[in-house]
Design brief:
This protein is α/β, with parallel strands linked by helices. 32% of the residues lie in helices and 25% in strands. Helix 3 crosses helix 4 (121-134), helix 3 (104-113) runs parallel beside helix 5 and helix 4 (121-134) packs across helix 5.
Length: 247
């Protein structure tokens, strides 16, 4: 039986002001299993960024259940959420988010240095170098990010996301700041990582890259739709999402 990495049930997110309420997410049901490659696409304002923030524990839902590897995380404090995020979630951003003052090695090592339990120096060195080898950037360990091309910086960002062996890799428009050649290379690398067992959830506007995922979901008006336009929440009781949403 396949291990469930992520389970969202009845997730809503409401942003309220004195004048109005904005319902960004409406009853999201989502399951992601070990080895999945899920793409989420949809028009501007459909809730993609909000969903990604909740998946990455950067924000908390208004209602609903969110579990990561069986652990309920929807009601965590900010500090607890930060620890779980560091241990369970890897992020790849459109803008790379590398620190120019640090070497490539130290950028990749950052998630391990913020662990609750200190990672021994020898293990940290081994894990960072293994991730650099995975993205074919071992020869750049001592460089600074501003000495690298955009494509190389995104490879380093992927290595940083992988170094903590996360339960889930969240990928936010990974090719948005790259030309088509480098974008294709980054997507090929992500596909290879998935083939080797890494679990991915990617938000993208590019239909070519969305189609590379093994499961393609659409977000519209705060609801996840299957390929035929049916809200997945209506199907949740009928079959696992992996079966109803496969592409």
């Amino acid at each position: 039986m396949q291990q469930q990495k992520i389970s969202m049930r009845g997730i809503t997110k409401v942003f309220a002001t004195d004048e109005m309420e904005t319902h960004a997410l409406r009853g999201i049901d989502l399951q992601i299993f070990a080895g999945d490659f899920v793409s989420i696409c949809g028009p501007s304002g459909c809730g993609k960024s909000t969903l990604l923030s909740l998946l990455g524990l950067l924000d908390m839902p208004t209602e609903g259940s969110y579990q990561i590897e069986g652990q309920e995380v929807s009601g965590l404090s900010l500090s607890e959420a930060a620890f779980i995020r560091n241990e369970k979630i890897g992020f790849i951003f459109q803008s790379f988010n590398l620190i120019d003052e640090l070497t490539v090695f130290d950028n990749i090592a950052l998630p391990l240095r913020y662990r609750r339990n200190a990672v021994p120096k020898a293990e940290l060195q081994e894990r960072v170098m293994a991730c650099l080898k995975t993205v074919d950037m071992s020869h750049r360990a001592g460089h600074r990010p501003n000495q690298l091309s955009g494509g190389q910086q995104q490879r380093i960002a992927i290595a940083r996301a992988l170094v903590g062996s996360p339960a889930l890799l969240l990928v936010d428009e990974p090719t948005g700041n790259l030309d088509s050649k480098n974008g294709d290379a980054v997507m090929d690398m992500l596909s290879e990582l998935n083939s080797n067992g890494t679990t991915l959830c990617m938000v993208t506007h590019d239909p070519r890259y969305a189609d590379m995922a093994s499961r393609k979901l659409h977000l519209l008006d705060g609801r996840i739709l299957d390929a035929d336009g049916t809200p997945l929440s209506q199907q949740a009781q009928q079959a696992p999402l992996r079966q109803v949403a496969g592409h």
